[in-house]
Amino acid sequence: MRQGERPVPMLGKLCAVAIALLFIAWGADGFEEEPIRYGAISGNNAVTALQSALDSNTATLAYDETFKRLPSVLEHLKVPRESQVLVFSKTSLQIQHISPNNPRAIYFNDDTYVGSVPNGEVIEVSTADPQLGAMFYTVSQRQSERAGFVRQTDNCLQCHGSSLTRGIPGHIVRSVFADENGYPILKAGTHLTGQSSPIADRWGGWYVTGTHGDSRHMGNVFAVETEIDASIDRDAGANLTALNPRVDLEQYLTPHSDIIALTVLAHQVEVHNLITEANFATRGAQFRQAAVDEALKRDPNIPSETTLHVVKSVGDRLVESMLFANETKLSGALHGTSGFAGMFSARGPRDSQGRSLRDFDLQTRMFKYPLSYLIYSKSFDGLPDLVKRHVYQSLWDHLTGRVESRFNAHLSAATRAAILQIVRETKDNLPDYWKLHT
Question: Domain check: are 226 and 112 in the same one?
Answer without folding.
Answer: yes
